[in-house]
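Checklist before submission:
- one chain only
- standard amino acids only
- sequence pasted in full

Submission:
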Amino acid sequence: MSLSTAILINGVLDLGIVLAVAAVMLFPFTLDRSKREAPIYSFATDLPDELAA
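Returned file contents:
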């Protein structure tokens, strides 16, 4: 195996690792929670009438 082939294979493997880590970081909360569970932080809900100004 020549040096340029080894460098190319190493670059492809490094790119695969970087893409795998980026894919896991995109979905941090969906991987450890089932879809039936309510989200812990629900920012999209409306305020109750007592708190609305």
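Reviewer check: The chain is about 45% helix and 0% strand.
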